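BUG: 3D viewer hangs when loading the predicted structure for this chain

Environment: internal workstation, default settings.
Expected: structure renders.
Actual: progress bar stalls at 90%.

Input used:
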Amino acid sequence: MSLFYDARIRAFLYQTIAIGAVVFVAWMMFSTASANLAKQDIATGFGFLARQAGFVITETAIAYEPTDTFGRAILVGIANTVKVSALAVFFGTILGVLVGIGRLSHNPVLSRLMLAYVEALRNVPLLLYLLLWYSLIISVFPPVKQAIEMLPGVFLSNSGLVMPAMRWASGLEALVIALVVGTVAAVVVTRVLARRRIATGKEMPVATIAAFAILLPLTLTLLSADISVSLDVPELGRFRLTGGYHVRPEFVALLIGLTLSASANVAEIVRAGIQAVSKGQWEAATALGLPRSRTLKLVILPQALRIIVPPLTNTYLTVFKNSSLAIAIGYPDLVMVSNTIMNQTGQAIEAIAIFMAVYLGLSILISLVMNWYNARVALRER
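Structure tokens produced before the viewer hung:
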């Protein structure tokens, strides 16, 4: 009994009991579901992933054919989800920072406009905006037969934007590797030059040197590698556009909806982060003769970043999870592809478990990356 009075042992015991209870309940649910499915002659397990899918996915971020497996179809859904979510995070962050700074403007018109923008986007469900943007795209632009040729080979219609595309026969992998190597070299060079500037006070053309570090591997690859590429120009037929790269209205509507929604949340986070910085920092920078723009860039935002990053993580997680609303406008994300698989195989539990695991994995990955970045920008005591 003396061991029971040890707080650490009690905590370990309680945790073990809790985990055991969760595992027992999960096992009971799994056993009951398996028994009920067996009574109805419904197959269980993940063997269906190796079977032929047999359905078309209108937009694919990776290569896919109807003859591919269900597993490949799920990978396409994951790639589509990550593509639109990552772009929404990127554009939403840039737009949100601008809107957040605009909300603090001394210009009352600009400040009120930014306030109206934030309130309108934060207080209306995202699903309604997705339906709105999709309806506008479908209604405003002409049908395919009357597609607008904006530039030679570039057509705009209610089925989306079609433009010339580059088709790589060989050499794409070598260029990607060269770009990665050049980017890493540019980052290393930039950091070395920054430390040298701090140590010596001498300015160096950092942007020029970084650009050279990126372009040198690409140039050498272009000169030495076997690169074969062709230009696929779209053609307007009687009923549809063939060839080229197709940016579909479902993707555009989803990207606009997620971007604007994220930007409104980012704007409020940025505004709060800037206002949390002491006014003495503004006054000190002004006393040194720094203009407001440089004060914001060099003094205020670096300090506000420590406050901004933690809530920003939640916004990014929300963007990835909200991408599941794509099913309402027909964008083939992970949820929509999984629903199609469920309808064809009847194995709903397995399909739902897969996309739940995917969303959980993506959320954990985003949290790890943002926590790592937060630790880098956090104020360290000395």
